Amino acid sequence: MSSKAELHFDGGSVTLPMVEGSEGERAIVIENLRAETGLITLDPGYANTGSCESRITFIDGEQGILRYRGYPIEHLAERCTFLEVSYLLMFGELPTQQQLDRFSGSIINHTMIHEDFRLFYRALPKDAHPMAACSAMVAALATFYPDSLDPRNPREVEISIHRLIAKLPTIAAYAYKHSIGQPFMYPDNQLSYVGNFLRLMFSTPCESFEVDPVVEKAIDLLLILHADHEQNCSTSTVRIVGSSHANLFAAISAGINALWGPRHGGANQEVIEMLQAISEAGLSVREFVERAKSSDDTSRLMGFGHRVYKNFDPRAKIIKKACYDVLQRLGVQNKLLEIAVELEELALKDDYFVERKLYPNVDFYSGVIYTAIGTPDNMFTPMFAIGRLPGWIAQWLEMHEQRQKIGRPRQVYQGEKTREITPIAGR
Ligand code: ACO
Predict the structure, then answer these.
(1) pLDDT at 223
(2) DSSP class of residue 425?
C-alpha cells in the first residue's frame, strides 16, 4: 500500500507523505506543502480536511458506527453511566470502582457555585436564552478561579475540569430558574449527577422532590449519546480557541456558543418547534416535507442530515427506542412523537432525502424525550452542552498533549488589488 502521494500542478509536482489511521482511513499530509511549493489547499467547511490525529472518537459515517475510545456507543449506552463515559473520554480508559468513586465524589463536591456568582443572573433579562447565559457564566468562571487557569499546569487543569463538569448543570439550571422567576435551589450531594440536575431544574423550596428513576436514566443516556463526536463545529472551536493557550473556561465558553447554532446543537430546539408548528397549524406532514425540499423555501427538515453520517446516525436509533420506552413508562401520550415518526417515514421514502443521504440525526428524537419530562424548549441545547462537555475537555487535553500549533488557516484572497484613496469629497 502506497504511503506517498504525488501532486502534479501547473509548474511542478511534489511527493507528499501519507498517514493511515488505526481503522484504515488514509490521509495525505500537507504540513509542508506551502513551504515546498508555495501552494495552499482550499476547503471551505473543511469537509476534506483532517485537523488532527485523534485517539478519542471513531465515526464511520457510511456504516453508522460511533465508538468512544474503541467502545461501541450502543454498549456504552447500555452498560455505563455518564460519569463513567466522561472519565473514559477524558482519561482514555473506563474507571475502576475506586477511580470512579474518587472522580464522582470530587464532582459532587464542586456542584455549588460561589454565592456572588448567583448575582450575575440578576443582570440578565428574564427571556435571555439559557445558552447565552451558560456561555457567559462559563467564561466568568475564569474571574472566580484565577488559581486554575494555566493550561500547562496539570494540577490546575485537573481542578478546572472538575469545576466545569460539576458546575455546568448548576449554571444551566439557574439560567432556567431565573427565566421563570423561581428561587435557585442548592445542589444536593446525596443525589446522582443527573438526579441533582433534575432537582436544580424542577424542585422548589415549597415542595418535596423525588427524582424519577425513569427520567434520571433517560437523561443519563442522552448525555452519554451526546458526549463526543470528534471534530464537529463546537469541538473544533474548542480546539482552535485552546490552541491560542486560552484557559479551559474560555475555550469551553466558545464551544457552547458554537453549539448554539441551529445547524449544530441548536437543532434540537428547532426540531420540537417544527413539530409543534406542524401540530398547531394543522399542516399535513407531506406538506411540510415538500416545503423543506423546495429551493424557494429556506426551511430545512430540522434533525435531518449530517455532515458525516450518510447512512444512519446510530445515536438517533438509540434515542428513538428510548423515546418509546420513556413515554410508555411515564404513561405519556405524545402527539409530537407521532408527527416525528410520520415525518421520518415519509422523508426516508422520498427521493430528495434518499439521493442526498439525509437521515434523522441525534437531535430528531431527543426533544420529544425532553418535552415529555417537562423540559422547556430553550433548555434542550444547554442539556446537549452538559453532555458534550467531557468530549470538549478530552479534545482540549489531547490538543495540548500533542503540542498543536496555534490554529490559523490561510485563505485565497479574491478582493481588490492595491488602490489609492480618493479624498472623501470626490468619492
Ligand atoms: N432538510 C432539507 N434539505 C437538506 C437538509 C435538511 N435537513 N440537510 C441538507 N439538505 C440538502 C441541502 O439543501 C443540500 O441540497 P442541494 O445539494 O440541493 O443544495 C444538500 O442536502 C446537502 O446539504 P449541505 O448543507 O451541503 O450538507 P452539510 O453536510 O454541509 O450539512 C447539516 C449538514 C448542517 C447537518 C444539514 O444537513 C442541516 O442543516 N440539517 C438540519 C439541521 C440539523 O439537524 N443539524 C443538526 C446536525 S447534528 C449536530 O450538529 C449535533
Answers:
(1) 97
(2) G
- Report the 10 Å Cβ neighbour count for 31: 10
Check residue 88 and give its pLDDT. Answer: 98
pLDDT value of position 199 = 97
Cβ neighbours for 399, distance < 8 A, ≥ 6 positions apart: 52, 239, 242, 243
pLDDT (average), residues 61-69: 95
Give the position of cell 425532553: 370
Pairwise pLDDT comparison (86 vs 290), residue with the higher score: 86
| Nearest atom, ligand 1, residue 226 CA | 51
Single out the catalytic residue among 226, 306, 350, 400: 306
Q: Which residue has the cell 443525589?
A: 191
With the most atoms of ligand 1 within 8 angstroms of its CB, the residue from 73, 307, 354, 356 to mutate is: 356
CB 312 within 8 A of CB 359: yes
Distance in angstroms between the alpha carbons of the first and the last residue of the chain: 62
- Which of 15, 197, 165 shows the shortest CA–CA distance to 91? 165
Q: How far is CA 273 from the centre of its chain?
A: 19
